[in-house]
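retry 2 of 3: previous attempt timed out while embedding cobalamin. Reduced batch size to 1 and resubmitted. Inputs unchanged:
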Amino acid sequence: MASPTVNFETVTFVMKTFVNDLSAYSSGVSERQIGWYNDVLPASLRQPHHEDTLAVVVLSTPDMFERAFLPFMEKGCCQGVSDPIDQCVKHTINSSFPGKKVEVSYDYEMLPASRKPKFLAQTAAHVAGAAYYYQEADVTDHPWGDKKKFGVCIHPRFGGWFAIRALLVFEGVQVGCEVLQSSPPDCVPSREARIQLLEDFNLRWQDWKYRDIIPPVQRYSQRQRDYFSTRPAQRPALLQEWGFLQKEKGGSQLEPPPGHGPQHSSWTSPRD
Ligand code: B12
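retry 2 succeeded.
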């Protein structure tokens, strides 16, 4: 076992602070070692860190919208052209680890050369033990032939009502056998339910149904659903209507960047 260069309690405490700030609760943050993630991925997608390095996956819980995002907007912290939710998550993470040597990758970031995601959020959530990642391979004798179905993570308490926001890597903090890898709870064990889940996620995700594959303890509020169901370009207007965004002379305080088509702007990335 390698000895930690930073006191593990301190790391745990900082994570608790973060949990409060982002209104996630205890399982909103899951620790893991980077080696568990790299073990299931090809070389091109691995994290360039020693296999015993401490890593943390950050999930946002259903009440993040009311408890972190709307107050963030109300305080006028949101500026510029990037997506307000992304700004809120970034602000919370940055203010939770002042002075800590932590490398943060956000779910929407791509590697410049390959245009592949900086980290695979679902794989990370699974190996962290936070949320089971159901993939085609988890359905025996699946009925889809060569029609690819994207996989989806289900959280044992929130079902599908959460998002995976970031990967934090504590460079230089090495953990060994004191952190045991725990499998995420398999809350969708039957073949039929897994087929239902993957079809709902791939074919009709807009109706929110896949998120209820197990009864969740909490769902997104109606207001949050209205926000995410609104086209990103129209979201500033909605926030203004709700009184969370001031209208500025000559346009709104927040606007998607000019010249960015829907497929290129971070305002449109489909991930909430
Ligand atoms: C690109 C992307 C999309 C693309 C393509 C989807 C895809 N999965 O490729 C599009 C635009 C279609 C899309 C759509 C949606 N997306 Co999207 N998307 C992403 C994004 C940014 C990257 C996914 C990706 O490219 N993966 C690369 C592929 C190759 O990875 P993979 O299929 O998992 O394969 C790897 C694993 O199989 C692993 N592996 C191999 N063996 C094993 C074994 C084990 C045990 C494990 C764990 C892993 C493992 O190795 C493979 C790679 O070699 C992620 C965020 C992120 N940074 O990860 C969100 C993400 C997957 N999206 C998400 C969501 C919610 C959506 C939407 C519902 C939109 C929305 N607004 O809500 C829709 C639904 C899908 C649909 N019907 O189209 C969520 C899913 C949350 C969840 N509960 O799982 C994510 C995680 C974003 C988030 N912040 O939470 N998305």
